[in-house]
TrEMBL record:
<feature type="binding site">
    <location>
        <position position="213"/>
    </location>
    <ligand>
        <name>FAD</name>
    </ligand>
</feature>
<keyword id="KW-0560">Oxidoreductase</keyword>
<keyword id="KW-0274">FAD</keyword>
<dbReference type="GO" id="GO:0006598">
    <property type="term" value="P:polyamine catabolic process"/>
</dbReference>
<protein>
    <submittedName>
        <fullName>Amine oxidase</fullName>
    </submittedName>
</protein>
<dbReference type="GO" id="GO:0050660">
    <property type="term" value="F:flavin adenine dinucleotide binding"/>
</dbReference>
<dbReference type="InterPro" id="IPR050281">
    <property type="entry name" value="Flavin_monoamine_oxidase"/>
</dbReference>
<dbReference type="InterPro" id="IPR001613">
    <property type="entry name" value="Flavin_amine_oxidase"/>
</dbReference>
<comment type="similarity">
    <text>Belongs to the flavin monoamine oxidase family.</text>
</comment>
<feature type="binding site">
    <location>
        <position position="14"/>
    </location>
    <ligand>
        <name>FAD</name>
    </ligand>
</feature>
<feature type="binding site">
    <location>
        <begin position="34"/>
        <end position="35"/>
    </location>
    <ligand>
        <name>FAD</name>
    </ligand>
</feature>
<dbReference type="InterPro" id="IPR002937">
    <property type="entry name" value="Amino_oxidase"/>
</dbReference>
<keyword id="KW-0732">Signal</keyword>
<feature type="domain" description="Amine oxidase">
    <location>
        <begin position="13"/>
        <end position="104"/>
    </location>
</feature>
<dbReference type="GO" id="GO:0046592">
    <property type="term" value="F:polyamine oxidase activity"/>
</dbReference>
<feature type="signal peptide">
    <location>
        <begin position="1"/>
        <end position="18"/>
    </location>
</feature>
<comment type="pathway">
    <text>Amine and polyamine degradation; spermine degradation.</text>
</comment>
Amino acid sequence: MSTASVIIIGAGISGISAAKVLVENGVEDVLILEATDRIGGRIHKQNFGDVPVELGAGWIAGVGGKESNPVWELASRFNLRTCFSDYTNARFNIYDRSGKIFPTGIASDSYKKAVDSAILKLKSLEAQCSGQVAEEAPSSPKTPIELAIDFILHDFEMAEVEPISTYVDFGEREFLVADERGYECLLYKMAEEFLVTSHGNILDNRLKLNQVVREVQQSRNGVVVKTEDGSVYEANYVIVSASIGVLQSDLLSFQPLLPRWKTEAIQKCDVMVYTKIFLKFPQCFWPCGPGQEFFIYAHEQRGYFTFWQHMENAYPGSNILVVTLTNEQSKRVEAQSDQETMKEAMSVLRDMFGATIPYATDILVPRWWNNRFQRGSYSNYPMISDNQLLQNIKAPVGRIFFTGEHTSEKFSGYVHGGYLAGIDTSKSLLEEMKQSLLLQPLLAFTESLTLTHQKPNNSQIYTNVKFISGTS
C-alpha cells in the first residue's frame, strides 16, 4: 500500500493545476493517478498528415478583453504557437447541396431570424421558470439553411444569445493552437515546475500512469483508493478530477455510496460530445482566401457534416480539412467504421465542390464518447439551470473533493475553466487541511480524557482552545 497526503485522480489540466498548488503550498507528498499512458486528459495531440492536430481542446477561447485569460498567459509564457480564428465569416460561406453558396442577404436574414428566435426561446424558458406567462415559443428551424445556422448558433456561438462569462471577462477573440508540441505542452511545462523531469519526460514517482481507479473507500481516518490492476493507495484526502461523463458512468465507485444530492446533481448535468474529423487530401481544392477558413454545409438533417474548417492557416500546404460533429451525430459516427465515415464526408464535399475532387488519402476519427476514461467532451449545463445544481456537483463529500471544468461556476466547458477549477479546489482543500490540523490537538485532548474516564471541565477545554488558536 502506497500512502500520500492527497491522491489526485486524473492528470488533465485540472489535476495538474491542483497538484501544482498543493506542492507550492507545502503538501509535497501528493500522488497523481492517471488511467492512460500520458497527461493531458481531453487535451490530446496526435500527428496526422505530417502535422500535429488537436483531437480534443483546440482553441484558447476568450482573448483580447480587459482581463487576461490565464491559459492565454500560459501560452504566451511558453511561446505556444497559435492562429487567430474568425468564425463570423462562416455564416456567409454556406453551401447548398448543389454546390451554390447562399447569397449574403439570405444568409444574413436567416442568421438574424435564428438569433431572434433563440433569444425569444430563452425568454420563454426564463418566464416558465419564474412562473410567469411565457410568450409563444418560436417555430423550430425547418429548411436546410435554417438548420445549418441553428447548428452554428447553438453549438458554437451562444454568446450572441446569452452573455457567456468567457467572452465577457476575457474577450471575444479565439486562437487555434498550431504548435508542434501540441496544446498539451502547457501541461508538461506546468508539471516541470513541481515534478522531476528529464528532457521533457516526467520521471517523478508521484505521477503514476496506467492506473485505472475503480474504487474510492472513505472512512473517518482517511481514504483508500483501489485500481484495476490490484494496486492500493491510501491518503488523507482525494481529489477526483475525472470528467462529468466518467462520474455518470460505472467506471468509478464510492464506498460508502455518495449521498443522493450528489449523485442526482451529477446525473442531471448534460455531456457535450464534440468530434473533429480530420481528412487528408493530395491537394487543396477548396477556397483559402481571407474569411474562408470556415464553411458550412446545409443539409436536411441538422448537424450532418455541417461545420468545416481548412488547416491552411495553421499549417500551409497540409491539405487537411476538419469537419466537426456533435452529440447524436458524433455518437453515430463513432459507432461505424472510419471507411463509412470517409464515404459520407466525401459525398458531402462532392456536393459542395463537384464530383471531380480527389478522394481523401487518410482519415482520423476521435472517439471521445466511447472512451471509457472520458465519456464525452465537456459539460453542458442547460441555458436555464438552478445554481444549486453546480454547487452540488462541486461540493466535497467528506474527504473526497471534486474538480474539473464541470465544477467551474463561470467557465464550465473551457480549458481555462478546468485550469481555474483545479486551483480553486486545491485552495479549498488546503483550508480544510488547515482547519483539521487546528482541531487535532483538541481531539487528542478529549480522546485522552475519554480513555482515562475523565470528564473535561470548562476550564480545561477553554485552555486547550486558547492553545490551539495561538492565543496562549
